[in-house]
Design goal:
three-stranded antiparallel beta sheet; mainly alpha; 257 residues
Length: 257
């Protein structure tokens, strides 16, 4: 006799028979679940807040005389404006997190182009191309450091610190090839010193999976991942009725505002 996950046809028949007897209860249960889901979706999308704001605004307008005070706020306006009515559990805004994620993503790609390019610091590549590649790296590195240091979330702060530590651990070698670590933890390249730099030292720093460039890519990946995780917490629900989650905003019933 054929079976489904350990049940034969007789067992399944009894199961569905018992369900049929309780169709009315089951239907009511499913209907209630659907209603709850619908209510949650309405609140999450920001629609509920907009409708509430619209309702109280109309009530207020109806009670006002011809000399309306345009600066007057409704009760709902005041409630929503307070602290932006944010439900975010992240210490950083979605805008900040999006910026950190973007900058970290850039240096991840730039680093990869360096440590996977085994011919960069050879006679096959001109000095101009070598300099351009390193300048791009320095620019992207500085961007993620400057943006990352604005973060208040401990997970991002920790990842940025590890990135900066990786740089400080290679400070002597970087200085030897004309790349200086500044007091604000950013990098500065001396083009003339770089052009005179020993190619083997450059390879040690920027070529292969054991290189400085590789460690920068790994740490930047952690910054990016932590920014994404924090973004999942940065869901805000404010006076505009918008709901933001991982940098995207919902906008339902916009015609009410």
């Amino acid at each position: 006799m054929p079976t489904i996950s350990g049940y034969d046809s007789s067992s399944l028949g009894v199961l569905f028979s018992s369900l049929n007897k309780n169709d009315k209860k089951n239907n009511n249960y499913m209907a209630n679940m659907y209603a709850l889901s619908s209510d949650y979706s309405t609140i999450k999308s920001g629609s509920y807040g907009k409708l509430m704001k619209s309702y109280f605004a109309k009530v207020a307008n109806a009670s006002e005389d011809d000399s309306k005070d345009s600066s007057k706020k409704t009760v709902v306006d005041t409630l929503f404006d307070k602290n932006n009515t944010s439900t975010s559990t992240s210490k950083d805004t979605s805008k900040t997190l999006a910026s950190i994620k973007g900058e970290a993503g850039e240096i991840v790609e730039t680093s990869k182009k360096l440590y996977t390019n085994t011919s960069l610091f050879t006679d096959k590549t001109s000095e101009e191309e070598q300099l351009k590649a390193i300048k791009n790296f320095v620019d992207d590195y500085n961007s993620v450091v400057e943006t990352g240091e604005k973060a208040k979330s401990s997970s991002i702060e920790s990842a940025v610190n590890k990135l900066e530590n990786a740089t400080n651990n290679n400070k002597k070698l970087l200085t030897a090839v004309g790349i200086n670590v500044k007091e604000d933890n950013t990098l500065e390249i001396d083009e003339e010193s770089f052009k005179k730099a020993d190619k083997s030292t450059l390879k040690t720093l920027f070529t292969g999976t054991g290189s400085y460039a590789y460690s920068v890519g790994v740490n930047a990946s952690m910054i990016k991942m932590n920014a994404e995780n924090e973004a999942a917490k940065a869901n805000t629900y404010g006076a505009s009725g918008s709901y933001s989650y991982t940098y995207s905003n919902g906008s339902i019933f916009n015609n009410y505002t």
